[in-house]
Each structure stands twice: as C-alpha cells, then as structure tokens.
Design goal:
six-stranded antiparallel beta sheet, 121 residues, alpha+beta, OB fold (Dihydrolipoamide Acetyltransferase, E2P), three-stranded antiparallel beta sheet, globular
C-alpha cells in the first residue's frame, strides 16, 4: 500500500489498483455522511479531483494519486458512507483504476514514510 501527501492510499494488484483514504484522513474528517463517486470509464490524471466526501464537519475533494481509467466504484458507499469511517483501508475503498503510468507510484510514500509524514502534520 502506498500513500499520497493528500492522504489517499493506493493498493496495486497487477495492472489495476484500488484507491481510498487513509485512516488518518477519515479521523480528521469525522463522520462521513455522503460520497460522490467518479464515473466508471472516466480517464483521470494524477492530481485530478475524483471523489467528494461530505462529513458532519465539512466537504472535501479527494484526488487521484495515479493516472488511469476508472474500472469500478464502491457502490456500497452510496447507501452506507460510514463504511469509510469503519474500515477506510479495506471495505471503505473508493474506486478501482487501471494504472496508466506505473512510475507515478514512485512518488508515493510507503507506510513507514507516511506515518512519519502525518506525525509532522
């Protein structure tokens, strides 16, 4: 699992990856009450806004850490957005993407580097 500075995680499986937000991010947001997911088939570039999360505190944009084509979205989140709070790095995944540029993963942090990053935030 790799992490971005904007608190998204990426888990690569072959040519595809699953993306979500970190446990740290969900704690900072508070109770998530609404999720606006991307469109399947949409092609995105690293840094693009792809998801909107609304919590009891605020609404935030979630950016894709890698470029690719959206393959799937977590439909369960439409009716149960709290899954993100309960399991942000497993059941609360946001979308799956076909990785277009694997070298972009080199710019993301491993878990140890990410833990250091959030410790200094």
């Amino acid at each position: 699992m790799k992490f971005s500075q904007t608190h998204e995680w990426v888990k690569v499986e072959g040519e595809n990856a699953t993306v979500g937000i970190s446990d740290y991010a969900q704690k900072e947001l508070g109770e998530i009450v609404y999720v606006e997911l991307p469109t399947i088939g949409h092609v995105v570039s690293a840094g693009d806004e792809v998801v909107v999360l609304e919590s009891t505190k605020s609404a935030v944009d979630i950016y894709t850490p890698i470029s690719g084509k959206i393959l799937a979205i977590n439909e369960e989140l439409r009716s149960s957005p709290e899954i993100i709070n309960n399991s942000p790095q497993a059941k609360g995944w946001l979308y799956k993407i076909k990785v277009h540029n694997p070298s972009e993963l080199d710019f993301l942090m491993d878990d140890q580097a990410y833990q250091g990053y959030i410790a200094h935030s």
